[in-house]
Amino acid sequence: MSGATATASVATGASALSIVDGGFVRDGRPHRILSGSMHYFRVHPAQWRDRLERLVALGLNTVDTYVAWNFHERRRGEPDWSDWRDLERFIALAGELGLDVIVRPGPYICAEWDNGGFPAWLSGVPGMRLRSSHPAYLDAVDRWFDELLPRLVPLQAAHGGPIVAVQLENEYGSYGDDADYLAWLHERLVAGGITELIYTADGPTELMQDGGSVPGVLATATFGSRAAQAAAMLRERRDGEPFVCAELWNGWFDHWGDPHHVRTPAGAAGVVADILAEGGSLSLYMAHGGTNFGLRSGANHDGARLQPTQTSYDSHAPVAENGAITEKFRLIREVLADATGQVPPEASPTPPVLPAATLPLRPIAGLLEVVRGAGREVRSAMPPSFEELGLDAGLALYRAEPIVPRGGALLTVRGLRDRAVVFVDGARVAVLDAEQAAAGVRIGGEGRAVVLELLVENQGRINYGPLLGEGKGILGGVQLDRRLVQRWSTRALPLDEWGERELAGEPQGFRRSDAIQDGSAASVLTSERSPETVDRSGLASATLTVDDPADAFLALPGSVKGFVWVNGLLLGRYWEIGPQLTYYVPAPLLRAGENTITVLELERLGDAVELREQAELGPEQEYIETFD
């Protein structure tokens, strides 16, 4: 549908939410959706109930969540709905607490989530055209919905469950204008048994609404300010439809190296009041943000550089990353209570936090020792991409033995995605991002073959915009001056799947060096397969002893960039450039007695990890909404 004056009648059928005179009706009474976003995949399942109860205490009547395809089907044909991935349990739990549920199944979700929710095995198919009516893509979505929808249908309100609405795609008008694709998705949801309200969500501009709305399907908007302007635009286009802000950006996410984005509590509460004054419904994005555990944080691209998203997804939300009740919570709660005339139950106290402590780091093995002995070796003429390796996230170690001429040569890497530590004969010579790799770095040579190794890190797959689905690894070639380097051996390192053996530094063929004697992180580490090198990178561990497990905030002073595990679960990436300086450790990850913290440092390891008593998310900058 296009045109500012177009109107549409919205078919709701037997759905719990019907539309009458431009508003919602539920159970025969006027109804307003007061929702908040909370993603089950960003909250430890043992904390789902606590966080949902806090949404109830905020005064919300609904919770909405995306469904991340790649969280459930990391490998083609191997869907997983157990434990943390038990979507049905999360939805049922929300219903037990009296919350309605809105499900946002995508298949594209953005959400600052790796690859926008798409599995890497899908986006890596040659010629794949995501988010379009491309037949191969539709076939994959069809199979995924065959798996997903039967789990949602019985949980709809029509069957006594809490699901009252389902979102169609996600902000599609910011991406494309394939109306056939959107129509197919709508038909697929209905054919799959979705009988509750279906709606689209797009930015509040003509361009975005033109590309993302569907005739006969409720059109909503996503924004952070200017509620009256958004309401007027939607009502002009869709006379007789309720005004809904499907995402009210009351906070914002953070990229590595940028400030910590905040939204003033009074400003956020003021926009909530503005929407309610317009007779609108809303969903707070985020009500509770949670954490990008493991390697699931995504990335943006501003046209010049990659912008990886950090591990914390606190998003300056009313309910903080550790469940703390904030001033924003209190102000929004007051606005909602005034509008509804109902006072919600009080929130429970903020969960306790472990006291401050300093834990010495004990070195286990050097970086090259660890990565050279892990994973299966793949041989190829040219360096393979992560997709060709069947690797969705983590690291890949590329190794070749080119002859470097006397006087040296310029080493360049075309299509590096995203960052490489370069070693020559076991010695670190450079750390390169994509731009630096294309410009090149000069390496020395004596007219003989050298061992050239590039440890490449995927810093998060792009989740928004035209570069969605871009590959990782080395997508072009590696050159010495004008000559291509060929005959590669590559090891895929899926860090979030590493087990006890890898985290103990016991890959096949390697051992701890006898040089590790003083217990400091600067020890010399050697390998049976490489010459001795002095390098402060590598694998190390610390022991945390607790009587009663509680939440913790972990800091890594002195360490530069790497990954941290707690009792074998990959907490996420860390990076000294921030903005976040602490990393949230949920209490359910800890146990009474000894707990093991493991660090894989890519550059320079500090001597200790610290526990701090509050989150330190970095210098703040007010979020400013833009549409471009």
From TrEMBL:
<dbReference type="GO" id="GO:0016798">
    <property type="term" value="F:hydrolase activity, acting on glycosyl bonds"/>
</dbReference>
<comment type="similarity">
    <text>Belongs to the glycosyl hydrolase 35 family.</text>
</comment>
<dbReference type="InterPro" id="IPR048913">
    <property type="entry name" value="BetaGal_gal-bd"/>
</dbReference>
<dbReference type="InterPro" id="IPR001944">
    <property type="entry name" value="Glycoside_Hdrlase_35"/>
</dbReference>
<dbReference type="Pfam" id="PF21317">
    <property type="entry name" value="BetaGal_ABD_1"/>
</dbReference>
<feature type="domain" description="Beta-galactosidase galactose-binding">
    <location>
        <begin position="542"/>
        <end position="595"/>
    </location>
</feature>
<dbReference type="InterPro" id="IPR031330">
    <property type="entry name" value="Gly_Hdrlase_35_cat"/>
</dbReference>
<dbReference type="InterPro" id="IPR026283">
    <property type="entry name" value="B-gal_1-like"/>
</dbReference>
<keyword id="KW-0326">Glycosidase</keyword>
<feature type="domain" description="Beta-galactosidase 1-like first all-beta">
    <location>
        <begin position="383"/>
        <end position="493"/>
    </location>
</feature>
<dbReference type="InterPro" id="IPR048912">
    <property type="entry name" value="BetaGal1-like_ABD1"/>
</dbReference>
<dbReference type="InterPro" id="IPR017853">
    <property type="entry name" value="GH"/>
</dbReference>
<keyword id="KW-0378">Hydrolase</keyword>
<protein>
    <recommendedName>
        <fullName>Beta-galactosidase</fullName>
        <ecNumber>3.2.1.23</ecNumber>
    </recommendedName>
</protein>
<dbReference type="Pfam" id="PF21467">
    <property type="entry name" value="BetaGal_gal-bd"/>
</dbReference>
<dbReference type="InterPro" id="IPR008979">
    <property type="entry name" value="Galactose-bd-like_sf"/>
</dbReference>
<feature type="domain" description="Glycoside hydrolase 35 catalytic">
    <location>
        <begin position="24"/>
        <end position="337"/>
    </location>
</feature>
<dbReference type="InterPro" id="IPR019801">
    <property type="entry name" value="Glyco_hydro_35_CS"/>
</dbReference>
<dbReference type="Pfam" id="PF01301">
    <property type="entry name" value="Glyco_hydro_35"/>
</dbReference>
